[in-house]
Write a structure and sequence with these properties.
The chain is of the alpha/beta class. The protein is built from 13 helices and five strands. It has a five-stranded mixed sheet with strand order 3-2-1-4-5, with helices on both faces. The termini are far apart.
Length: about 425
């Protein structure tokens, strides 16, 4: 009687996964072999033919097919868990190792700042017996790391956080939210601007958020890009753009931008540096973009160019024209210009190859022109429900909306307080 091969029936989507595993360079050897065996069996091959093709025994092929029949694809690709070796370290030993890992190496006379696997294992074996854990003095180099993994303690990983050090964090955040609350009174339920914010004297009050994006690289290609080929590549896959991975560095650009929140218009400026003088030049450009009767209130983060003496002195040159609103330290999230730069980074200038920095600047400014053709007003919503404009100081107001223009009945008759004014720095005594 002829030897008939048992055909493996693959579920929907299993074939695609097996084909990926069979050609994946990062797949394990076990997954690589078993995925090929299942594909051959799905094509009607005999066990002997599959074993000869994959270089494993016939019994291995049969076990793989049997596990697939009983438990599906996952069972066929993975090994069944065994009994394992009996754990020789006690719970006390493991807790001691975790406690030791939570100390810094420099505290025990070692030069490193943080533990790494080899040094931690060596230290465990060195001090274990003296500290009452003699079994840990004979563990392998990998055992302490496994103990840390079981305890979900990131022994060898370092992440960075930013502690809140600004004593006026709450007040500064509140000032920014008050400004955004005032702006929300100027739009209807659909987000359309129906009233222009004004100051106490009836002048139009422009509210901007400003930010910079330094270090935008200008990269030159070392060869011509190859466009996609219709019909796909040799493997039948869609043909991509092909580019030489080598490139030449031409320097960097520093971008500055201000977003007119009610209008959604972006005002850009590009240069080689991002010093205080550059930011002051940008403020002059921003000042010249609007009628002289308007007042501008830019929301800024605490970048050094924003809080420098040169920048803080600039409003004195345009009295009644400019009033800074500073976001809290380590709290630049209300500065919506940062979100705009995030969008720019996703669309531009990633992947751009230019012959010089001048062309990169021109293309970035062209991007701003395209954005401003259909401006999108930026609206802030988080935390504004907690702001009650009626409870604010109404003696000093940078913005107000006339009752007849107020879009929400509950906001009528309310006015926002003036953002904190810049304080003149006292000159140091000689």
């Amino acid at each position: 009687m002829a030897n008939r091969a048992k055909v493996v029936e693959l579920a929907e989507g299993d074939r695609e996964r097996l084909e990926r595993l069979s050609t994946c360079a990062t797949a394990s050897a076990r997954e690589h072999v078993r995925s090929k065996a299942l594909l051959y069996k799905a094509s009607g091959w005999t066990d002997a033919a599959v074993a000869d093709k994959t270089g494993v025994s016939v019994d291995t092929v049969r076990r793989c097919v049997a596990r697939h029949g009983s438990g599906g694809l996952e069972a066929a690709l993975a090994d069944a868990p065994g009994r394992g070796r009996r754990r020789e370290t006690s719970e006390s030993d493991r807790l001691w190792a975790v406690s030791l890992a939570c100390t810094k190496p420099k505290d025990v006379g070692r030069p490193a700042e943080f533990w790494y696997p080899a040094s931690f294992a060596a230290h465990v074996r060195e001090v274990a017996e003296a500290q009452g854990h003699p079994r840990m003095a004979r563990v392998s180099e990998t055992t302490p790391g496994k103990i840390m993994d079981e305890a979900k303690a990131g022994l060898f990983a370092v992440t960075h956080c930013c502690e809140r050090r600004d004593p006026d964090f709450g007040r500064k955040a509140h000032d920014v939210l008050v400004v955004y609350k005032q702006l929300r009174m100027c739009v209807d339920a659909d987000g359309n601007l129906v009233a222009e914010p004004t100051d106490g004297g009836g002048r139009v009050a422009r509210t901007h958020t400003c930010d910079e994006k330094p270090g935008t690289r200008a990269l030159a290609a070392t060869g011509e890009d190859r466009p996609p080929v219709p019909g796909g590549d040799a493997g039948g896959r869609p043909s991509p753009h092909r580019r030489d991975r080598e490139y030449a560095r031409l320097g960097t650009l520093s971008l500055l931008a201000a977003i007119d929140l009610p209008a959604g218009v972006a005002v850009p400026m590009a240069g080689d540096t991002h010093k205080s003088s550059d930011f002051v030049a940008f403020l002059r450009k921003l000042d010249g973009s609007y009628p002289k009767g308007d007042v501008t209130g830019p929301v800024l983060d605490n970048h050094s160019s924003h809080v420098s003496a040169e920048t803080q002195a600039y409003p004195d040159t345009v009295p009644g024209r400019l009033a800074f609103v500073l976001a809290p330290t380590h709290g630049s999230w209300p500065d919506l210009a940062g979100s705009f730069f995030g969008k720019l980074a996703r669309q531009m200038p990633g992947g751009i190859r230019v012959p010089g920095k001048k062309e990169l600047e021109e293309r970035i400014l062209l991007y701003f022109d395209e954005v401003n053709e259909v401006p999108v007003p930026h609206r802030w919503t988080w935390g504004l429900d907690d702001i009650d404009l009626g409870a604010e100081d109404v003696d000093a107001i940078p913005l107000e909306v006339a009752d007849r223009k107020a879009c929400r009945p509950k906001d009528r008759g309310k006015r926002a307080p003036e953002p904190p004014r810049r304080r003149r720095r006292a000159k140091a005594s000689a």
